[in-house]
Input
Amino acid sequence: MIIAIDGPAASGKSTVAKELAQRLGYLYIDSGAMFRAVTYYALEQGLSNEAALKPELEKLHLKSIPGGIEIDGKKLYDELRSKEVDLNVSYYSAMASLRECLKNIQRQEALCHDVIMDGRDIGTAVFPQAEIKIFLSASPEERARRRYSQRNNSLSYEEILKDIKRRDKIDSTRDIAPLKQAKDAIYIDTSTLSLEEVLNKIEGIINNVSLCSQYHC
Ligand code: CDP
Output
């Protein structure tokens, strides 16, 4: 079974997806971390546009590892969430060649596993056939508040709110695989819900889908 969880920046996708994966014994794949890893790599190598990045993508080895991403033999964890990566990731994520490259890796990593993958285009572009699609959202202010309390970084609440709104805009207006709710996704507004309440809702949805497929309804 494939469960796709999409939604805007800091909507709680990865916390929810990680916890669900643990409870269900599924493999968790963080697609955002892959875009972050390539952004880190591109910044480090001075690859500032698609023409420069594209030939490198063909040689690049990237894979998910617990809690991070290994790229070209280097394991990345906290670096993936640096201010520089936050500021540049939506720019690189709009590049067609990068999206194509990561879509192939995401599909390969999900082969032979029950998977929960979170991102922006999992239910629309990567796994349009996913059995369960959830679109998680919350107000930008609530998302910024959560991210501010989560991260031990130098950014103020206002800076985080600004970055979230900026990334939402780039992610949802890009030409290729924009952030968008799939037609058959279930929308959950988490603004006033606790983590446990969100998890209960999604578990209820999963149980219904499993029962339905068992009885062919
Ligand atoms: O954790 P947060 O919600 O802030 O972001 P993330 O899931 O780590 O994703 C970081 C960035 O990667 C997003 O703002 C998008 O620009 C890009 N991304 C994407 O384009 N497609 C995905 N499937 C996942 C992430």
Summary: DSSP finds nine helices and eight strands in the chain. The beta strands are 2-6, 27-30, 62-65, 68-71, 74-76, 115-119, 132-137, 186-189. The chain has a mean pLDDT of 94.
